[in-house]
Amino acid sequence: MENTLIYDVLQKTRLEGYFRYVDNILILYNENLTDINEIHNIFNCTSPHLNFTLELEQDDGLNFLDLTIKTTTKMIFDIYRKPTTSDNIIPDSCHPSEQKLAAIRYFINRINMYDIGHVEK
């Protein structure tokens, strides 16, 4: 579907960017050239089995996956944590030590991939 119906929508509209990860889509657009509500309606008409939701930026920012994207004169990225995040890796459990260490290695790699403060692009 994405290579046919959605591709046709992207060709007919003036979207500046379309990024998808599994069931999350980030669309970049110029609000002077594009009516995002019209795009939202077009997406919802592509299939009766799909219902797309729309989340607009608030306070010049939007949470997408595990990032907060702020738009001012440039884009600023920060790590986003849901309010329900507990930060428990694997509490006292009978999991093998390899699984516990894998969770810790994940956080170490994440720290190394992301700048601790903000990444400006």
User: Can you tell me the overall shape?
Assistant: elongated
In percent, how much strand structure appears in the residues?
15-25%
**Number of DSSP helices?**
3
Question: Taking all residues together, what is the mean pLDDT?
Answer: 80
Class of secondary structure makeup? alpha+beta
Give the termini distance in whole angstroms. Answer: 32 Å
What is Rg?
19 Å
Q: What's the helical proportion of residues? A: 25-40%
- String of helices and strands: HEEHEEEHE
Low-confidence stretches are none
Number of strands: 6
Strand order of the largest sheet: 3-4-5-6
| Major sheet description | 4 strands, antiparallel
3D architecture notes:
By secondary structure, this protein is α+β, with helices and mostly antiparallel strands. It has a domain at 1-56. The protein is built from three helices and six strands; from the N terminus they run H-E-E-H-E-E-E-H-E. The protein has a four-stranded antiparallel β-sheet with strand order 3-4-5-6, with no helix packed on it. Strand 3 (61-64) and strand 4 (67-71) form a beta hairpin. The relative contact order is 0.10.
Per-chain topology:
Blueprint: H1 2-12, E1 15-21, E2 24-29, H2 36-44, E3 61-64, E4 67-71, E5 75-79, H3 97-113, E6 119-120
Antiparallel strand pairs: 1-2, 3-4, 4-5, 5-6
